[in-house]
Here is the input.
Amino acid sequence: MRRKDVTNPKAPARTTPRAPRQARGRERREQLLDAAATLIAESGLAAVSMHAAAERAGASIGSVYHFFRDKDQMLDALAERHDAELQPAFDRVLQRSDAEWAALSPADIIEQLIGWAIRYFVRHPDALATLDLHDQTMHAEFKAVIDRVMRAKLGEELGAQAATTLDAVVLGTLLFTREQDPRSRDVVVAALPDMMASYLIALEAKRKRAKG
Here is the structure.
């Protein structure tokens, strides 16, 4: 889930500087990252610069360069911060067995598989901007989990159909929220879990009818 150089897909992921050892240094670094995140949330990725982050954080430009070599390294640090927060939740999704997923209601499946992730990205617009949504490895892993869960719940044919649909809806929603004002975005995100759960309920009913 590391942020990548999208201009060169073969380029290795950039490295971030070692975290400061002193509490004051760690606090200052987090303040700078918070400032960069706020700039992204307010005006998009293009608004972030070393000087803008320094001004927003009330820090000197020298302080920014003490922690980050350049803007790209700062954005990498933001991506890694989200990585660290998201990974435990994603691990819990991976660790749940097929039988456990199959026993859940459609609403619980959507919440525990997808809902939490969408809400996280909506709360943290900088995560959408800094984590590469088009990273094929990251996307393939997520899609594989959805596919496994849907097949466990709905069987092979309907499960594959549901996985393809939900994957497209989730990715499209995340991209959509980057362009919307908060009010429109919140309306969509609030309605989405119920819509996806209703879709699964309809597929469950279809499966039962097919079984006769």
